[in-house]
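Lab meeting, action items carried over

1. Structure of the two-component assembly. Owner: GW. Status: complete.
Input record:
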Amino acid sequence: MSKFAKKKDGEVPAVSTASLPDIVFMLLFFFMTVTVMKDSSLKVENVLPNASEVKKLEKKDRVIYIYVGKPTREYEKTFGTEPKIQLNDKFASPSEVGDYILMERAKKPQEIQNVLTTALKVDKNASMGLISDIKQELRKVNALKVNYTTYEGDAFNNLQ
Amino acid sequence: MARRAGAPEVSAGSMADIAFLLLIFFLVTTTIETDAGLDRMLPPMEPPTEAPPIIKQKNIFTVNINRNGQLLVEDEILSIDKLREKAMAFLDNGGAPSGSPDYCSYCKGKRNAESSDNPTKAIISLKNDRETKYSTYITVQNELVGAYNDLRNREAKRLFGKDYVAMEAEYLNPETDDSVKEELKEKVTRIQGLFPQKLSEAETSSE
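Predicted assembly:
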């Protein structure tokens, strides 16, 4: 039986997997550093319209988000089907937008407080009345830079 | 020193498995994509005492959107896909006669005396109903911004042989070198000066 155990010359040694954890850890750290955790779960429907003349929103730390849309099905019973504003994790009325912006602004470092952008993520079926109210509130607190967040695409797809 | 039968080595074989598990978790939760959209500046709240500046009617291009998403442009009904063309014709008109201080040397429009004098004077006024759908509004905004971008592209091509939109994107990109940025800033502001974006939005009213 000993002839089975005998090693032949020139046999390829098994590839060492000792460095596999290192490689995997490297990848792991990469993804850990680039990950941005979603900080608020959406409570409103949020299908954005399309636009072609878009600009990218660089520097995420300089953006304050406002979501607008119809409450999703689980919230329909309590909040109805009219489009609503969502700030952070809760529904809000237009009059609360100003306070929210001031609060978020105060959280940011001093040097970027006056270069903040407000990103309006509005569902395409919302009506302009609510948006106008929000814009008025934004003007009151002097948050004049807004970005209507859209998908990139042909703007005429919105009309169907 | 007699060694004891040393503690058995901890097997590191499962380390890779644990790391993989974490890796997969982060892979799944990662979102790298950046948002994009239409940038706009809201007008500052003006002090109520200040009288609004007087603007000649011919320098204003009015766009009205009603609740059904129909457009009234300069008191005529217009379909939305003609809007860009019409806005460009208005902005690029350059109606001031040569010799006057408002004369526009780079305009390629019809030079109709009834329309805007100069792109720097021309104002687009947008008004919408409270019931207008947001998607319609975005389409109109997109077309108006597009009209400006098309004209700016044309001038940028003529002056610098490059698209304005591309230059601006490069200028705003945080990875661009500072020296390149300086140079771009000058060009971008020059083009913006030729066709300043004067898009006024009336407060939505139900008057």
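2. GW to write a short summary for the group page. Key points so far: The longest helix of chain A spans residues 20-34. DSSP finds five helices and seven strands in chain A.
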